[in-house]
């Protein structure tokens, strides 16, 4: 009787472990691994455009905390984090002279403006990141179209704002654009995890 | 390079691909049969249904994991041995006709092993069950089978986690695997017959192991695809460099075969070759495309591409050996290479392979650069081979040059 009980417990336990793994743990683990593999893409862009150094990591960290705050589902949060890492990959298509600021004509500005679409096309090729490509594209073109894109757009604006004008001004700009330029819920989530000194 | 099976990629008994419809049909029959048999208390047929379900539910490529259905088949053999043998032969035929690559023959071999295991198992159990010592023997066999399973699992873990310099670990996983699985199946089946509740130990364990294997296969295939996509970054920045890397990668696989590297080692080598110039994404294309000789500063900027390429790959694969192979692909046998001026003994053989093919492709050029931006004229393949031989021993590894020349002669490059 004891052995039957032990075997039954082992069988149920192992079966439950398999089910939990298949449905919950392993998919989340896959997302985390994709975020790790995506770091190579971010590193390539940082080496090509040193002014983007560290931006991907900052965005990823910010959206991870803000997602938690906003109560996003774990899979959405993981997808958003991946999008934050890959958002700049389109800069690979921007010529070096434009990246260095040696060329600032209208044509060159147009090339830079196209980087989200090009980035989206590149992200389509990253395995497991196909659903992220749309977030990358929308975050620059139409953030209101998706909650994740809205969150990423606000995080990108904040990170860029801190680099150019400091944390205080960046926060002010987000508040000023809340509900108009930026999604209100996304702004609230981001501002809840930063303070005016730029600390998170 | 192994890839995870794609959803819907299956064939049924030699017919053209049917995708999910064929598989769902088989699954439905298997589950329905199992449910009806369980309702009627017929353990043997229940188990057969579950065996078919376990085998067909997820497509597979590596022969070792066809053992997923073995515990069910082995246990069913003692209640309905003839049915179990027929089912096993049917599954083997299914695999043999359904394997989309050359593993059809491997699958058929595995089917023969399964049938043999089932026949032996049912004969052994039917003999043992009449003896008073049957239960004791079954317990002993159970312990043996658990040990065998653990040994196989340990070999698999070591093979998966060890570096590719230690080929023994990769080979160990497959050594005597058919015998291990056959013995485990017989033992597991005998133990289940003696103590049916043992099935509760076998079934979930088999499911868990199968799930772990599938997860690892998915990881491996995503990794391979990620590396391909990483190279694709250069499509926009330096398209002819991307084409060059792809050519070098294809040839590297053949040179690896000439150097007697195992399949996974060659796959890794091909990955490293595919990304050996990824660091050029950080080099100003105006320098790369300059038609005249480079200045010293420009040359230094280009030289940095090997360490930057290593840094890019290391960002996601810090412990992978391909990082070092990419970094060292411009080292020279005489120790005057870059970036680290390594002595020849410390230059990985994989870097030496990439170095030879890289130089040959650079000399012979290609038609992928439509503007023909080069400051040195293209040379004929025969002249390029002479150059490789001339610099063998100083810049290039002589053995690698010889292997590469054999590949050229066979027409693989």
What percent of the residues of chain B sit in helical stretches (DSSP H or I)?
Answer: 55-70%
Query: Over all CA atoms, what is the radius of gyration of chain B?
Result: 27 Å
Oligomer: heterodimer
The total of beta strands of chain A comes to: 0
Q: How would you spell out the order of helices and strands of chain B?
A: HHHHHHHHHHHHHHHHHHH
Unreliable residue runs of chain B? 1-22, 59-65, 97-105, 129-133, 162-183
Cα-atom radius of gyration of chain A: 20 Å
Please characterize this protein's 3D structure.
The complex is a heterodimer of chains A (200) and B (413). With 200 residues, chain A is an all-alpha fold. Chain A is built from ten helices and no strands. Chain A has helices at residues 2-48, 55-70, 74-86, 96-99, 106-113, 115-123, 130-141, 147-165, 167-177, 184-193. The radius of gyration of chain A is 20 Å and the shape is elongated. Chain B is mostly helical and 413 residues long. In chain B, 67% of the residues lie in helices and 0% in strands. Chain B contains 19 helices and no strands. Chain B has helices at 20-39, 43-57, 70-77, 81-98, 104-128, 134-161, 167-174, 177-194, 199-231, 234-237, 239-258, 263-274, 285-288, 296-303, 305-314, 321-327, 349-364, 381-390, 398-409. Chain B is elongated and about 80 Å long. The model of chain B is unreliable at 1-22, 59-65, 97-105, 129-133 and 162-183 (pLDDT under 50). The chains are: A mainly alpha (200), B mainly alpha (413). The A-B interface holds A 3-4, 7-8, 10-15, 17-18, 21-22, 26, 29-30, 33-34, 36-44, 47-48, 89, 92-93, 95-97, 118, 122, 125-128 and B 195, 197-198, 200-201, 203-205, 207-208, 211-212, 215, 218-219, 221-223, 225-226, 228-230, 232-234, 236-237, 278-279, 281-282, 284-286, 308, 311-313, 315-317.
């Amino acid at each position: 009787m004891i052995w039957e009980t032990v075997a039954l417990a082992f069988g149920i336990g192992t079966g439950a472990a398999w089910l939990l793994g298949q449905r919950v743990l392993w998919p989340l683990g896959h997302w985390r691994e994709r975020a790790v593999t995506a770091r190579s893409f971010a590193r390539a862009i940082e080496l090509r455009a040193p002014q983007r150094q560290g931006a991907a990591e900052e965005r990823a960290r910010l959206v991870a905390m803000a997602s938690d705050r906003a109560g996003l589902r774990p899979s959405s949060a993981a997808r958003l984090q991946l999008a934050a890492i890959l958002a700049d990959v389109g800069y690979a298509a921007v010529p070096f002279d434009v990246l260095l600021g040696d060329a600032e004509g209208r044509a060159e500005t147009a090339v830079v403006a196209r980087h989200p679409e090009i980035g989206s096309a590149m992200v389509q090729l990253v395995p497991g990141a196909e659903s992220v490509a749309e977030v990358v594209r929308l975050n620059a073109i139409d953030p209101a179209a998706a909650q994740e894109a809205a969150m990423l757009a606000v995080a990108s604006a904040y990170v860029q704002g801190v680099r150019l004008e400091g944390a205080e001004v960046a926060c002010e700009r987000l508040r000023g654009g809340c509900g108009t330029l930026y999604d209100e819920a996304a702004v609230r989530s981001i501002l809840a995890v930063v303070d005016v000194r730029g600390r998170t | 390079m192994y890839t995870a099976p794609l959803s819907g990629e299956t064939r049924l008994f030699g017919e053209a691909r049917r995708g999910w419809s064929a598989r769902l049909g088989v699954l439905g029959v298997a589950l329905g049969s199992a449910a009806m048999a369980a309702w009627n208390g017929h353990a043997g047929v229940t188990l057969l249904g579950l065996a078919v379900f376990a085998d067909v539910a997820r497509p597979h490529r590596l022969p070792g994991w066809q053992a997923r259905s073995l515990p069910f088949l082995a246990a069913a053999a003692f209640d309905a041995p003839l049915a179990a043998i027929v089912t096993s032969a049917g599954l083997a035929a299914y695999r043999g006709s359904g394997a989309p690559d050359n593993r059809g023959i491997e699958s058929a071999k595995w089917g023969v092993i399964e049938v043999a295991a089932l026949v032996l198992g049912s004969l052994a159990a039917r003999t043992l069950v009449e003896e008073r010592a049957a239960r004791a023997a079954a317990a002993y066999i159970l312990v043996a089978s658990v040990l065998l399973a653990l040994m196989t699992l340990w070999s698999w873990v070591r093979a998966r986690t060890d570096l590719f310099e230690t080929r023994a670990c990769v080979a160990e996983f497959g050594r005597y695997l058919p015998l291990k699985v056959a013995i485990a199946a017989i033992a597991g089946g005998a133990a289940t017959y003696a103590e049916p509740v043992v099935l509760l130990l076998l079934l979930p364990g088999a499911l868990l192991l199968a799930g772990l294997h599938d997860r690892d296969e998915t990881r491996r295939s995503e990794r391979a695809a990620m590396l391909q996509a990483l190279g694709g970054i250069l499509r926009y920045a330096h398209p002819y460099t991307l084409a060059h890397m792809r050519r070098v990668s294809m040839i590297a696989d053949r040179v690896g075969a000439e150097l007697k590297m195992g399949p996974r080692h060659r796959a890794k080598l091909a990955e490293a070759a595919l990304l050996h110039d990824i660091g050029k994404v950080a080099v100003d294309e105006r320098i790369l495309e300059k038609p005249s000789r480079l200045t010293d500063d420009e040359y230094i900027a280009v030289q940095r591409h090997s360490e930057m390429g290593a840094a890019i790959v290391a960002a996601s694969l810090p412990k992978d050996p391909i990082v070092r192979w990419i970094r060292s692909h411009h080292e020279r046998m005489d120790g005057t290479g870059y970036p680290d001026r390594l002595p020849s003994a410390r230059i990985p053989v994989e870097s030496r392979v990439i170095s030879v093919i890289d130089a040959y492709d650079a000399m012979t050029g290609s038609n992928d650069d439509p503007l023909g931006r080069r400051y040195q004229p293209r040379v004929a393949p025969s002249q390029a081979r002479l150059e490789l031989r001339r610099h063998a021993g100083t810049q290039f590894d002589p053995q690698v040059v010889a292997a590469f020349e054999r590949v050229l002669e066979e027409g693989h490059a």
